[in-house]
Specification:
Blueprint (H helix, E strand, L loop, with lengths): L2 E5 L7 H12 L5 E3 L4 H7 L5 E3 L8 H4 L7 H6 L8 E6 L13 E6 L19 H18 L4 E4 L2 H11 L3 E3 L27 E4 L8 H11 L3 E4 L5 H7 L4 E5 L3 H10 L2 E4 L7 H8 L4 E4 L4 H4 L6 E4 L4 H13 L6 H7 L5 H14 L1
């Protein structure tokens, strides 16, 4: 059976890219089709992969300006020639679901969510003053809905996303949750790098620094509480967030997996102030036996067990998050690190591989 993988673009490492890397490990001979690839990314994470790109790759500085070329992407995805393959797995952030394939080729779409700025988050964007942007979004929504009909089998990353696929695409989907790539097991050979790692007694956030991640809410709460907070990750809001943070809050920037393992190991608890479609980082923290405080929305409802593996707060405001920290501290004695670790076994790489292979076999 000839298999191909498709991903929107390969520019920075996020949850979707981690899943693609895992799919590549399962199907190492499958070529990866993508609109463009950052060569630094491929060198660091997909060195042995055969990557086939679209015409966007020829545009200078494409890794920086691609957001302004969205209007080209639907037709470029549709132009990929995948006629030689029996099964195509699209790792779809936005466009990859829109492949045009021959009837004999089965299309499995691993869907992270129906395009959020077109559907459930649409209200946050309709206020723009640019009528051309609004019109483009309208036509992109029409294309996105039509593209969903070309998929033979939808796979959702969570029940939350499964419900969105049903609502916006009117399609059924099975759920196969993403695997955790970092865990206590993966840190066994990481002892030498941790000898000089002495940071302790802090709470941890691992996130890209974007507006919808609610990092400012956590900063406001920790400014008032005075507890140590370490924020791992980077993004366009870094300087803005640094200005409002007090000395008890450290911005660690991007960290490789080896270093990130040490941050997980030594934190008191993990904080997730945003709604996620699934959320890999809190599960990674739990795999080290750490409790999680999460916003009571989205994928966290499927991965955090209140009072056992962590706590929830109900509103993305500093007061609610601070109250969650208080409850987290009060309940600390009731958290069992081994029980928290056991809870994450259902999200293992082995489980993911088993489910993906069973899905392919059914084709």
């Amino acid at each position: 059976m000839k298999i191909a993988l498709v991903h929107d673009w390969l520019n920075t490492l996020g949850g979707a890219e981690r899943v693609l890397i895992e799919l590549h490990k399962i199907f190492p001979e499958a070529p990866i089709y993508t609109l463009f690839v950052n060569k630094k990314f491929s060198k660091n994470f997909l060195l042995d992969a055969e990557i086939r790109v679209s015409a966007l790759q020829k545009i200078p500085l494409i890794a920086k300006i691609y957001k302004y070329l969205f209007f080209l992407m639907p037709s470029l995805v549709e132009s990929f020639d995948l006629s030689e393959f029996d099964v195509v797995i699209s790792s779809s952030v936005i466009f990859s679901k829109g492949l045009v394939l021959k009837p004999k080729t089965k299309h499995i779409c691993y869907c992270y969510s129906p395009t959020r700025f077109l559907w459930d988050n649409h209200a946050e964007y309709i206020g723009t003053d640019n009528p051309l942007v609004n019109l483009a979004r309208h036509f992109l929504r029409i294309w996105d809905r039509g593209a969903s009909d070309r998929v033979d089998e939808f796979v959702a990353i969570s029940k939350t996303v499964q419900d969105r696929i049903k609502k916006y695409y009117h399609r059924d989907a099975i759920v196969i949750t993403p695997p955790i790539m970092l865990s206590e097991e993966s840190s066994i050979n990481n002892q030498s790098s941790s000898k000089n790692f002495t940071i302790n007694n802090y709470y941890l956030i691992v996130s890209r620094l974007y507006r919808h991640k609610n990092i400012n809410v956590a900063i406001d709460a920790f400014n008032k509480l005075g507890y140590n907070l370490v924020i791992v990750g980077t993004g366009p809001l870094k300087k803005e967030l640094e200005k409002i943070a007090k000395k008890n809050i450290k911005f660690a920037g991007f960290k490789n997996d080896e270093t990130l393992i040490n941050y997980y190991k030594r934190c008191r608890a993990f904080i997730m102030p945003q709604e996620e479609d699934f959320g890999l980082t809190p599960i990674e923290a739990m795999s080290f036996g750490k409790p999680v405080l999460a916003l009571r929305r989205g994928g966290a409802l499927e991965t955090v067990i209140e009072g056992i593996t962590g706590e929830f707060f109900d509103d993305p405001i500093p007061e609610a998050l601070a109250d969650g920290i208080r409850r987290l501290n009060n309940n600390r004695a009731s958290y069992n690190a081994e029980i928290i670790k056991q809870h994450t076994l259902k999200f293992s790489r082995e489980k993911f591989k088993e489910q993906i292979l069973a899905l392919i076999a059914n084709c």
